[in-house]
């Protein structure tokens, strides 16, 4: 059974970004970040 580590890492990456957003760590308004909406779909913000 082969594990797709890239998929796991991406999932962890998006979760981390979501947690940062929830913590209101948005010191740089110019930064582009990604988060999951209520439907767990990727959304890009600038």
What's the arrangement of secondary structure elements?
Elements: H1 5-22, E1 33-36, E2 42-45
Antiparallel strand pairs: 1-2
List keywords for this structure.
single chain; about 45 residues; alpha+beta; two-stranded antiparallel ribbon; about 40% helix; rod-shaped
The main β sheet shows up as:
2 strands, antiparallel
**Order of strands side by side in the largest beta sheet?**
1-2
Mean pLDDT: 66
What distance lies between the first and last C-alpha atoms, to the nearest angstrom? 39 Å
SS class: alpha+beta
Q: Tell me the radius of gyration.
A: 12 Å
What fraction of residues sit in β-strands? Answer: 15-25%
Give the helix proportion (percent range): 25-40%
Count of alpha and pi helical runs: 1
Shape summary: rod-shaped
Query: Number of domains in the coordinates?
Result: 1
Q: Care to count the β-strands?
A: 2
- In the predicted model, the low-confidence regions spanning at least 5 consecutive residues are none
Order of helices and strands: HEE
């Amino acid at each position: 059974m082969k594990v797709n580590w890239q998929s796991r890492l991406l999932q962890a990456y998006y979760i981390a970004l979501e947690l940062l957003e929830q913590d209101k760590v948005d010191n740089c308004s110019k930064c582009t970040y990604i988060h999951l909406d209520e439907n767990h779909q990727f959304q890009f913000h600038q």
